[in-house]
Predict the 3D structure of the following.
Amino acid sequence: MTEREDARTTAAAAPKVLHIALWVAQILLAAAFGMAGVMKSTQPIADLAAQLVWPGAVPEALVRFIGISELAGAIGLVLPAATRIQPGLTPLAALGLIVVMLLAAGFHVTRGELFALPINLALAALAAFIAWGRGRRAPIAAR
């Protein structure tokens, strides 16, 4: 059995409810990271610092890099799966967002901003669900 046939067999065996749950998670996470990414990559740092505080404490290039990374992750969660062109990129995008959230959690801990941890960990858990679901349990077959 080829890898493509195996992916189709695995996807067919996954319950429809799981596919729906994964799509809902993908869209919600993409919306969250898409909005955050656009904000961090386009708004003036002074405006971001007034809203989030921490952008004023780190180099502007780092804030922009984080924003672009979040935006790329958001696109990667939905576009490859929706078009079925390189759908294997979707779980990789989710893994990338897990890394972003774990680094964010560590950053916030060093600053004593423990209130941010539940948000970081919840977003990382949702991304882990997508990485597992689209990577192993219910992958989307390529065209």
Notes: The chain has a mean pLDDT of 93. The chain has one domain: 3-137. The radius of gyration is 17 Å. Residues 3-137 form one domain.
